[in-house]
Specification:
There is one protein chain. 52% of the residues lie in helices and 10% in strands. By secondary structure, it is an alpha+beta fold. The chain folds into four domains: 123 residues, Beta Polymerase, domain 2 (2-Layer Sandwich), CATH 3.30.460; 81 residues, Hydrophobic Seed Protein (Orthogonal Bundle), CATH 1.10.110; 136 residues; 46 residues, no CATH class. The strands form three sheets. It has a seven-stranded mixed beta sheet with strand order 3-4-5-2-1-6-7. A two-stranded parallel sheet has the order 8-9. Strands 10-11 form a two-stranded antiparallel sheet. A hairpin with a 4-residue loop joins β6 and β7. The termini are far apart. The relative contact order is 0.06.
């Protein structure tokens, strides 16, 4: 297992690097904190031609190589479970480089040859004090994404933000509007992925750090954020559905937390998420979720809803249904009203939830001598509803009903 201060565990030999370079950034911080991770990001500062070094390592170890910034000499190597960023030193010496970083806990360097730390801004002291402290206010102004990063680090590490730093975060929050949306999305996703991160999302909202990208946050939704983690712990039955990934690195639960930063207008939801470059799957999920919630909440008030109404909701919701159930629990609806929906959805043989076909469109065309077209889809939907209501139970009944429905 990789340990940042044991180069023998790195994915390449230390002899491949020039002497007296530095490991910097999050790997140093996490190594000093004793954090264990499934994947590591190693940021190395080397006093050499970084692009040439990166290409050499890529060829030798047959791994991916990307030039991130040719002018500033920054390149990336991608190994299994380890990403290595190689950078040329920014400034005449390591202190000049570290002086440009965001927070003191990220401004610690480890000389991988001498095996010594260089800590000009007392980052180790702040690690012990569990404090997020800026290196300099100008560093936050120059890259305002660091404003969001402060809240994310506080959530990940369970640290506090030093008061002067937090005031600077407030001052710099409006500048987040000029940050590339992809970068904002990435930082926000990391924050949403942290369990019990609601406190720091509240702080980010109060400090104005969310407004540049989420101008219409509704307090009633924001206050629901802590309940999502509680629901996962209280109702393990629903956890597998919320853990499902809408994309490779994003779960349904993260997406539902994101909903708490949006308003109730599906058009606004789509525009906001598209502006932030969220995936089509995430946008479609949340637009459908917002559009269906009030209807689903109305059905929860009925004891029980008509089968036809249930069938229609299941058909419209599809894979969004478990999220609607989870929101009902978050909002405190009685379990007796909520669980029957998840029980039906969880049963693949339930015709109300899953519109199980007794016949196919080909069957209808063959037995009723019908041409392809919209009528086939309409008949299949009518038959699925009849099956859900118990009016038909087999193929023969389905064909007989279809024949009757198809008559002019």
């Amino acid at each position: 297992m990789l340990h940042p201060f044991n180069p023998q565990t790195w994915p390449f030999a230390l002899t491949d690097l020039p002497p007296h370079g530095y490991l910097v950034g999050g790997a140093v911080r996490d190594g000093l904190l004793g954090r264990t991770k499934k994947s590591w990001d190693l940021d190395l500062i080397c006093q050499t031609d970084v692009l040439r070094l990166g290409r050499h390592l890529s060829r030798k170890y047959r791994t991916g190589f990307v030039v991130l910034d040719a002018d500033r000499q920054i390149a990336r190597l991608v190994f299994p479970q380890v990403t290595v960023d190689l950078s040329a030193m920014q400034g005449p010496d390591i202190e000049s480089d570290l002086r440009q970083r965001d927070f003191t806990i990220n401004a610690i360097a480890w000389d991988y040859t001498a095996r010594t730390f260089y800590d000009p801004f007392n980052g180790q002291k702040d690690l012990q004090a569990q404090t997020i402290r800026m290196v300099h206010p100008d560093n936050l102004r120059q890259d305002p994404l660091r404003v969001l990063r402060a809240y994310r680090l506080a959530a990940q590490l369970h640290f506090a933000i030093e008061p002067l730093t937090q005031q600077t975060l407030k001052d710099c929050a409006p500048y987040l509007a000029r940050v590339a949306p992809e970068r904002v999305q990435t930082e926000l996703n990391l924050l949403l992925a942290e369990p019990h991160s609601s406190h720091w999302l509240f702080c980010a909202e109060q400090d104005g750090a969310l407004q540049p990208w989420f101008p219409n946050i509704q307090p009633a939704w924001l206050t629901l954020l802590p309940r999502w983690d509680e629901v996962v712990m209280t109702y393990p039955q629903i956890s597998p559905y919320l853990a499902r990934e809408l994309r490779a690195d994003r779960s349904v639960l993260q997406t539902l937390k994101l909903r708490c930063l949006l308003n109730d207008n599906p058009v606004d939801v789509e525009q906001t998420l598209t502006r932030l470059r969220y995936s089509r799957a995430e946008v479609e999920y949340l637009v459908k979720f917002v559009r269906l919630w009030l209807h689903f909440a109305a059905l929860l008030q009925l004891s029980p809803p008509a089968i036809a109404d249930q069938f229609e909701m299941f058909q419209q919701a599809g894979d969004v249904l478990p999220g609607l159930v989870a929101l009902a629990l978050v909002r405190g609806y009685p379990e007796a009203q909520v669980w029957p929906w998840l029980e039906r959805y969880s049963d693949p043989s339930d015709p109300v939830a899953h519109a199980l076909p007794l016949v196919t469109g080909h069957d209808l065309m063959e037995h009723l001598n019908l041409p392809p077209g919209p009528q086939i889809g309409e008949l299949l939907r009518a038959l699925a509803l009849a099956h859900a209501q118990g009016e038909i139970t087999n193929r023969q009944d389905a064909l007989a009903l279809a024949r009757k429905l198809a008559l002019p």
